[in-house]
TrEMBL record:
The protein's name: Pectinesterase
Protein's UniProt keywords contain Transcription regulation: no
EC number: 3.1.1.11
Entry keyword annotation includes Cell membrane: no
PANTHER family per record: PECTINESTERASE 1-LIKE (PTHR31080:SF303), PECTINESTERASE INHIBITOR-LIKE (PTHR31080)
Pfam short name (any one): PMEI
Every Pectinesterase inhibitor domain range: 56-214
InterPro entries in UniProt: Invertase/methylesterase_inhib, Pectinesterase_inhib_dom, PME_Inhibitor
Class in the EC hierarchy, top level: hydrolase
Keywords: Hydrolase, Membrane, Signal, Transmembrane, Transmembrane helix
GO molecular function term, any single one: pectinesterase activity
Superkingdom as given in the UniProt entry: Eukaryota
Length: 269
């Protein structure tokens, strides 16, 4: 075998080794890159889940109540959700809010009748009876809403519930206006008793207003539970994932440089 043929065979062997090296090199390189991307998105997913209100019932209730008419009353009405150990959803908040309205009206619906039976004043009794009828009508409407299972409430359901709460609010307002008008014909002791009843009804009205706010701001509450992925991605990339990926890529680059140096040192021998 002459010198030129031997040199050609050596060059072919060298090119083959170089080709094999670069194949292995790029396989390792892209494997590390893909691993970095998967790791980054895994961390991002966990970060997004940790920021979700579904995983934090207490924060979820407080955030939802921030958009309502009366924060403290809302917190009381939704307090049972704060002790949940499982994830909660916007439908849980809406459902419990409506049930709390029903509970309030079930406790006050007989108050005007009880007061009318104790007051011997024909100028006041008609207003109390009218108020009683309005509260009973509201209670019946709320009772029908209890049979609706709110899981994934759509626009039609929200519209129906909004109309229901608006009607209940209207009935409550008419009841309170009637009591105000009747107070002009009452004696001081009767006025004091009527004020106590009125305060109970006003409390129930606040529950109604809170539920109305939750219905009106449904989209805002939904966004709290399911924050925009882009906003999470942007903020988290700046805070954590960006640094993590940069460190990972530097490590990959150093690893590749090390392999190249080892390869070059062997080819020179």
């Amino acid at each position: 075998m002459d010198q030129s043929q031997e040199t050609r065979l050596e060059n072919q062997a060298s090119r083959k080794k170089t080709k094999q090296f670069f194949i292995i090199f790029f396989i390792i390189f892209f494997t590390l890159i893909i691993s970095a991307i998967i790791s980054a998105f895994t961390v991002l997913k966990r970060h997004a889940e940790s920021r979700s209100l579904s995983a934090n019932p207490m924060l979820a209730v407080r955030s939802a109540c921030d958009v309502t008419y009366n924060y403290r009353t809302c917190i009381r009405s939704l307090s049972s959700l704060q002790n949940h150990t499982h994830k909660i959803h916007p439908s849980d908040i809406l459902g419990l809010s409506i049930r709390s309205v029903f509970h309030e009206f079930s406790t006050i619906s007989t108050l005007p009748q009880e007061l009318a039976s104790k007051i011997d004043n024909n100028n006041i009794k008609p207003a109390l009876i009218d108020c009683q009828n309005l509260l009973i009508d509201s209670l019946n409407q709320l009772n029908r809403s209890q049979n609706v299972e709110i899981i994934d409430y759509d626009e039609e359901m929200v519209k129906d519930l909004r109309n229901l709460m608006a009607q209940v609010k209207n009935n409550t307002g008419r009841c309170l206006d009637g009591l105000d008008g009747a107070a002009a014909a009452a004696v001081p002791q009767q006025i004091f008793t009527m004020k106590k009843v009125k305060m109970r009804i006003q409390k129930a009205e606040i529950y109604v207003l809170n539920s109305l706010e939750i219905l009106e701001k449904r989209s805002e509450i939904d966004e709290m539970f399911d924050p925009n992925f882009r906003s999470i991605l942007g903020s988290f990339m700046l805070q954590t994932v960006g640094v993590f990926c940069l460190q990972y890529l530097v490590m990959v680059w150093l690893f590749c440089v090390l392999i190249m140096r080892v390869f070059l040192s062997r080819t020179r021998k």
